Amino acid sequence: MDIELFENHMIIRNQVDFTEFVSGSCQPTIDFTVYDLGIGKKGLANANSSID
User: Fold this and answer.
1) What is the chain's pLDDT, residue by residue, as a tens digit (52 residues)?
2) CA-to-CA distance for 26 and 24, rounded, in angstroms?
3) How many CB atoms lie under 10 A from the CB of residue 12?
4) Residue 21 belongs to a domain
5) Would residue 52 count as lying in a domain?
6) What are the phi and psi torsion angles at 22 (to 5°)?
7) Beta strands in the chain (DSSP E)
8) What pLDDT sits at residue 35?
9) Which residues are bridge partners to 3 per DSSP?
10) pLDDT on residue 9
11) Which end of the chain is more exposed for a tag (fewer CB within 10 A), N or C?
């Protein structure tokens, strides 16, 4: 699965955006009425770089 990111992260909340930004042979079925898809890396507001 390849994702075209314009920033370091992206939240995909619907099938239209998923189809537009995600390509490749692995196309999982995601129920966007239940789940959002978060992809990438984003710093936390408290400056932590990870969650342990």
Assistant:
1) 565 655 678 899 999 999 988 888 888 899 999 999 988 766 666 666 555 5
2) 6
3) 20
4) yes
5) no
6) -110, 130
7) 2-3, 9-12, 22-23, 37-40
8) 96
9) 22
10) 80
11) C
Look at residue 46 and tell me if it is in a domain: no
Cα separation, 19 vs 15, whole angstroms: 6
> How many domains in the chain?
1
Identify whether the C-beta of residue 38 lies closer than 8 Å to the C-beta of residue 28: no
Contact 30, 21 (CB under 8 A): no
Can you give the pLDDT at residue 23? Answer: 84
Task: Answer yes or no: is 49 within a domain.
Answer: no
Structure tokens at 11: 């939240």
> In terms of pTM, does the model score above 0.70?
no
